[in-house]
Amino acid sequence: MSVPLSHVLIVASLMFAMGLGCVIAWRANVIMMLIGIEIMLNAVMLTFVGGSAHWGIADGQLFSLMLMALTSAEVSLALAMVVYLHRRKQTVNTDDFNSMKG
Amino acid sequence: MLPTYLTLMLLFPLLGGLTFAVAGRMLPRTLVEVLACATVWGSFVCAALAAAAYTGPQVVTLADWFATFDLAIPISLYLDPLSLAMTVMIGFVCGLIHIYSVFYMREDEDYARYFALLNLFVFAMLTLVLGETLPLLYLGWEGVGFCSYLLIGFWYSDPANADAGRKAFIATRIGDVALMIALAWLFQLFGTLSITKVNGMGFLMPVSVITMLGILFLIAAMGKSAQVPLMVWLPDAMAGPTPVSAMIHAATMVTAGVYLLARLLPLIGGSEIALAAIAITGGVTAFYGATCALAQRDLKRVLAYSTISQIGYMMLGVGAGAVTAATFHLLVHAFFKALLFLGAGCVIAAMHHEQDIYKMGGLRRSLPLTFWSFLVGAACLAGIPLTGGFFSKDSILLAVWLKGGVLYQTLYLLGLITALITAYYSFRLVFLVFAGENGHVHRSSGLTVMQVVLIPLAILGLFGGLLDLPAYLGGGYLSGFFASLPADDLPSASHEQEIGLQTVAGALALVGLLTAYLRYGKGRAERMREAQAQPSSLISFLAQGWYFDRLYDLVLIRPYHALARFLWQRVDEAVIDASVDGLGSGVGGAGRLFGRWSTGKVAVYLISFAAGAALILGYLAWLAL
Amino acid sequence: MEATLFYILAAVLLIGILLAITARQAVRSIVYLVTSFFALALMFYLLGAPLIAAFEVIIYAGAIMVLFLFVIMMLELESPEKLAKPNFKNWLPALLLAGAVVGALVVLLASRVQAVPPGFTEIPVRQFAFALFKQYGVAVEVVSMQLLFALVGALYLGRRR
């Protein structure tokens, strides 16, 4: 296959930027925020796998796997928290959760 | 045996004072009174035993106090004729005044504090007198000042009394600072603060240095002994209980300045200028005190000004180099001034605490014992021939006369005029208080004992002259006793000269007595009428102590207040506080500004975080371009 | 041929994500995202990582997205009054910051043009397994612990009071 690494990275950076935009824009919906985080994590995985293929070392793929495991943990906890917060406030708008105000 | 006597002499009043201070309130009143008198009389007995065992000047080292580097200050006591005479006098007079106090303070609830301070005062005074090293003397010096401050303000619930205490403390403090400077300088010069060593090393120093030291010691003495210009505190110090006035502000503490100068005379005597300064201070003060005493209406203030005047005489004697004469007068003065104050205390107690002499009169019939004792005291004060005061005052005047020179002859004349005024105001007091009618008194139970206490003092005052009779009457005990003191090598007068001078002085005293009799004995009714009228400007000038208080208020206190207000409002509040406050509110404002950022909303944090990431990446990209 | 396929897949991926983040309803967004992740899995396969591709389909497209779906349904977030749509004011900072990030990254990538000819080596599963269990065995253990903690945490948060 003859795709240069930079193209892979550009795709990954676009994907990351879209995930970032999603997180910032959807401040009213915590679910969409989490989806944005998933998109950014996938961008990172693409970067890892691209690097791994480029240099022929397994470490990149390996970290992708780790990321996947961590993500699943994170998502399960995050969604549990969403359920918990929704139960308390009947909303998923993050602007309503400001009890950490300094 | 001597160290034991000296130690016990100091320990008795110290232990007594501490006991009363700590546990006095829990002890029964009678016990406190008995113990307080017992400790002081114990001290007196020790002093008497020490006098009996005395053979020659002796240094007794009890313990080490400081011993660091080259500063070595042992607790050592020095017993020589001067300190021995002082200790015996202090023990005796203070002992009598303690007994008197028991009855005078009978109605006061705060007996524990009173006797604790009185005993501590005796301890401090004895330390001052016996201390061989100057720091020990300084300790006693400050101790008596502290006790005096607390005792002047003893009835502190009246603000005027507390103010009087503070005034005394601050005025004497000026002198204390001079003493402290002198001590530091002495140590720097000689490397030792032992009085005996310092006295022996004066000749090593240039005369100018000795002069400066002498002036510093003189300032110290001015503060403590109420000499011009630091005398303003003593008349106000009469706010304290009368026994305190008698003990501290007449007989003992105020003579500490004289004692200090007499003690250090071998050192200071090296400088004629310092001696002249001392003599001038003494002469001027004697005159000042006597003139002020002329116009006072308050019984105790008359006596206070007479004290200032008499201490001026002592200073004059020291300035003339006559330690013996000065000490002689000091001792006799202690007896008759304590007598006068205690007599005044009896009068005041009998008159329902009335102190205006124009409202008294006729007490010679109702209080005969007081009258006769007071008469003896007044005669001593006036220097009526053959009383103790006559001999002691004349020995000072004789010494001044013999010193010669224009300055000392002028001072001699001033002394003579002062003697005349003294005789006049002494008998003015006697005639106003005791002559005339209106002899109604209030008899309290303690009055009898209080009057009995006067008798030994009266005897001592009357026959005090026997201590040091003039040479033509066979010479005195005190002169022989003091002959061992150095620097007392005055030219001795011929008998004719001495008799002549004494005749002049005695005649003047009698003239004063006669004038007083004419004006206040015969013309009493007229004087009483005058007293009702507005006082003339001369009288009020004298009555206000030459307006020294107002002068100090104008020259020192008001500018000081103005400066303090300026520093407080313009410097402290406007500059220092404002800048600190500004700094604080600035930091607080910045904190609040950033604090508003932490809204607790996730979105704000995310945007901040993304903005930071964009910034870093942008910076890296800019570098790569 | 493979390169063409890669670019097509990349286009599908990006379009799918764009639709996902602008979708009106969360469920639609999830469906678009699943599509994108399938494309991403194929790209992994093309980049010589068949194992990661398989996990991507199983874990991401299969498990995690389904979990999201469950939560969305459970909370009944489909009703429009519960969902405030991001308006232009919300999108403006997002676009600005995302644009800045992409621009900076592209500039950085362009400034480091690869001299090496493009070429990918396939990493066999055996090598991957060796690296995973020999070199990074401790990391595997730590990850397993973390999964356990997440499980406990999720149970604690989700229990009824």
Automatic annotation (TrEMBL), chain A:
Record keywords: Cell inner membrane, Cell membrane, Membrane, NAD, Oxidoreductase, Quinone, Translocase, Transmembrane, Transmembrane helix, Transport, Ubiquinone
Protein name per the record: NADH-quinone oxidoreductase subunit K
PANTHER family: NADH-UBIQUINONE OXIDOREDUCTASE CHAIN 4L, NADH-UBIQUINONE OXIDOREDUCTASE SUBUNIT ND4L
Reactions listed under catalytic activity: a quinone + NADH + 5 H(+)(in) = a quinol + NAD(+) + 4 H(+)(out)
HAMAP family per record: NDH1_NuoK
Tree of life domain: Bacteria
Function: NDH-1 shuttles electrons from NADH, via FMN and iron-sulfur (Fe-S) centers, to quinones in the respiratory chain. The immediate electron acceptor for the enzyme in this species is believed to be ubiquinone. Couples the redox reaction to proton translocation (for every two electrons transferred, four hydrogen ions are translocated across the cytoplasmic membrane), and thus conserves the redox energy in a proton gradient.
Membrane topology annotation: Multi-pass membrane protein
Pfam family, one: Oxidored_q2
From TrEMBL, chain B:
Membrane-spanning residues: 31-52, 84-104, 111-130, 136-156, 177-195, 201-223, 244-262, 274-295, 302-324, 330-350, 371-391, 411-435, 447-467, 499-520, 602-622
Alphabetized UniProt keyword annotations: Membrane, Transmembrane, Transmembrane helix
Chief site of localization: membrane
NADH-Ubiquinone oxidoreductase (complex I) chain 5 N-terminal domain ranges (all copies): 65-115
UniProt xrefs under InterPro entries: NADHpl_OxRdtase_5_subgr (IPR018393), ND/Mrp_TM (IPR001750), NU5C-like (IPR003945), Proton_antipo_N (IPR001516)
Keyword Lyase applies: no
Subcellular location as annotated: Endomembrane system; Membrane
Protein name: NADH-quinone oxidoreductase subunit L
Record membrane topology: Multi-pass membrane protein
Matching NCBIfam families: NDH_I_L, PRK06590.1
Automatic annotation (TrEMBL), chain C:
Membrane topology: Multi-pass membrane protein
Top-level enzyme category: translocase
UniProt signal peptide: none
Pfam family, one: Oxidored_q3
Catalysis: reaction(s): a quinone + NADH + 5 H(+)(in) = a quinol + NAD(+) + 4 H(+)(out)
Transmembrane residue ranges: 6-23, 30-51, 57-75, 95-116, 136-157
Assigned keywords, A-Z: Cell membrane, Membrane, NAD, Quinone, Transmembrane, Transmembrane helix
Major localisation: membrane
Keyword NAD among UniProt keywords: yes
Cellular localisation: Cell membrane
Enzyme Commission number: 7.1.1.-
Protein purpose: NDH-1 shuttles electrons from NADH, via FMN and iron-sulfur (Fe-S) centers, to quinones in the respiratory chain. Couples the redox reaction to proton translocation (for every two electrons transferred, four hydrogen ions are translocated across the cytoplasmic membrane), and thus conserves the redox energy in a proton gradient.
PANTHER family: NADH-UBIQUINONE OXIDOREDUCTASE CHAIN 6
Family stated for the protein in its record: Belongs to the complex I subunit 6 family.
Protein name per UniProt: NADH-quinone oxidoreductase subunit J
Native species: Geomonas propionica
Higher taxonomy: Bacteria, Pseudomonadati, Thermodesulfobacteriota, Desulfuromonadia, Geobacterales
